[in-house]
Amino acid sequence: MTNNIINRVALGRKYNVGESGIDAKATLNKFGELLGTSNAGDYIPWLEWVNRITGLDTKVDKVAKDLDTFLELVIEEHMIRTEKGENRAGEAKGKVDVLLEIQNGNETGIPLQRDSLKALLLERVIKTQSCMNVKMESTLSFVSF
């Protein structure tokens, strides 16, 4: 349920496994795990070869590819919906729609590349997930047993 709320807030709708063939929840969980993984090459550059042996490089590449595919799907869905005019009258625009308007309109004078758009969306998902974790933790701390 929490994952559905995070997706709706950050991306505009829920993303379930069966619909797109991509397990967004598992991919984001793997991404979070990799953020907390120690990397010997970061501390001692000549030990970077250890990451190939432990499989860390392979895991990072797979998660990066999965995230890129998922975020590309999100962007394409919003672009198609906008082109077809499927946005409901009176419906508030989501962050993806606003970012696509900025990208297409060049209103800011700063070009917004596709990779930058994906990075902003990923940041939004992570920030929303972090916020939800803090709120749930604080709620549970008030429950007395």
Automatic annotation (TrEMBL):
Signal peptide: none annotated. Coiled coil: none annotated. InterPro entries: Cyt_P450_sf (IPR036396). Gene3D superfamilies: Cytochrome P450. GO terms for molecular function: heme binding; iron ion binding; monooxygenase activity; oxidoreductase activity, acting on paired donors, with incorporation or reduction of molecular oxygen. The keyword Transferase does not apply. The keyword Metal-binding applies. Keywords: Heme, Iron, Metal-binding. PANTHER family: CYTOCHROME 71A4 (PTHR47955:SF17), CYTOCHROME P450 FAMILY 71 PROTEIN (PTHR47955). Belongs to the cytochrome P450 family. This is Uncharacterized protein.
